[in-house]
Each structure stands twice: as structure tokens, then as C-alpha cells.
Amino acid sequence: MKGQTAVITGSGRGIGKAIAECFARRGVNVVIVDVDPDIAGETAKEIAALGVRSLAVRADVSNAADVKTIFDEAVGEFQKVEILINNAGITRDGLLMRMSEQDWDSVIDINLKGTFLCSKEAVRVMSKQRYGRIINISSVVGFMGNAGQANYTASKAGVMGLTKTVAREYAGRGITSNAVAPGFITTAMTDALPENIKSEMLKLIPSGRFGAVADVASAAVFLASPEAGYITGQVIHVNGGMYM
Fold first, then answer.
1. Which of these is catalytic: 131, 152, 230, 243?
2. 131 among known catalytic residues
3. Which class does domain 5-238 fall in?
């Protein structure tokens, strides 16, 4: 994988940043995409310190013009893009009866429409190369459902359907499309949850621990590797047995 280029959305922090670091350690050049330009720039500097080339791009993945800019800049800098990680995502939790239309639209736009727009631009580049790896970050709740997350669960379930359709459409051009569905992963977002909720969640995990961002990153890197070339249209669950 050394010398390849990966575009990773939402990679300024959290799971996305961990994936970027994991790729960089394998010699992959990384395009850090985040809605916050300061965070994107700082992370890109940290990635470059690992001995690869990096590029920071400020973008809102729900905006088609921004997404086109991501790939224009990536190809301009690296001449190619072999890997796309659709990781950008948000939550706007609330029970269905109290959920505003704006909160529904915001989550669907970033989590699902953003994955669609980025994948669409990626396959334009990858089809010409006759090679590509698209990995979408979904979620265990897309399979299980979760009270208070109608918008989020719908978006993540949609991501999995999109993953399989892209796999069918572009397998003949050397492009694979897969998803990683994390369970409860320790991040700044989950750290903010009340202890009683975390305790109840832990009871649902046979492994007896919450996942780490590195667990998700390792799965993403595997799916992007040459060794995973005959795997497409699949969802890899990284959840400690929470969902089987």
C-alpha cells in the first residue's frame, strides 16, 4: 500500500484521525478532510510527521461543490486516489415525536448524502485507474436500531445499502466497496455519556470492554489492502460481539 493515496472524511479527530494514522504508518499518503479547517490542518501536520505526504481540505461533505473540491485537490496533489474512507458523521439525537425536521435532514445530509457524494466523485477517479477501495463507516445501530436515534440509525442503514449497490456497479472496474460497522467505541463523544448509560451498554458486549478507535482503523486498513481484493459488498462488524 506504500505510496497510495487515501481520502478520509471527518478525519480531523476521533475514528477518522485514527484511520489516517493507521494508513500513514503503512506509507499511505493521506488527505485529511474536515469541516473545521484548523483541526484539519493540525491533523495533517501530525500525519506528515509520520513520514508520508498529507493534505488538509476543509469541506462540508453534504455540499457537492465542496466534495468536488476534495477530489480535485487530492488528484492535483497526488495524481491519483486509491482509497476513500467515508467517515464523516454527526448525531442529533431525540425521540421520534420530538425530533425536528431540521435534525432529521442534517444527519441524513452528512451521514448518507455525504457518503453518496464522495463515493460518486471517487468512482470517477477510480474507474479511470481501474482500481479503488471504498470503505464506509456505518454503525451497529443500523442493524439493531436505537431509541432516540431514528435519524442516525436510518442514515447508517442507508450507508450499508449504498455500499452494496456501489459494490455491484463497480466490481468490474477493479473497485471494491465495503463497510465497517463499529459498536460502542470510546471517543470524546461517548465519553460525554452518563456513567449509568455506559454501564448498561457494557452489559450488552460479550467481550466485556468498549472498543478503541484503533479497532475500527485496523478493519478499515485491511479492507483497503490488496489482501482484501476479493471482498466487496460486505459489512465488517467491530463490536466485541454486541451484535452477531
1. 152
2. no
3. alpha beta
